[in-house]
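Why does residue order matter? Because the sequence determines the fold. Keep that principle in mind as you read this record.
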Amino acid sequence: MPQMNKGGKYVFGWSEIKDDLTISVPEMAVNEYRIADDSKIFLISGSKKTGGFCVTDKKLLINSKLKHILEDNEKLREYKLESGEFIKYKGRLYCWVPFDKGIIQLNNRVLDELSLKIGDKLLSIRSSDIAFTLGVKGPLIEKAHNYNGKIELY
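Structure:
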């Protein structure tokens, strides 16, 4: 797993938004965050600096200091929203989408809301013990583009 600079963030690889609106998540991220058996995951809008979105699941979120997100938003917690239908909570956007064998299934609603498009390459970044980020812009993404080593594309 490449590290962009000493003491910096680790990255799992690049993930491209394909024509069918799917994203393949690096296997190392799937394993590290233990989401392999999930059929639904949560997307959280990324920071203004990195864009994209963070990926987590119910078990990671409900057992964390951020459990209030699910406690305060029953429709999100119980998947009563449509896939890709965002809710706004404390300055961030949250939704759920289908997930199967390392593949995230997006839809046009997600792309529009997060200003993404088919062909975008997102960098899978180890962010915290709760979620990993699929970032699309900013200094870390630039470092990854200029990285001399190999960063796999999924």
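The longest helix spans residues 139-145.
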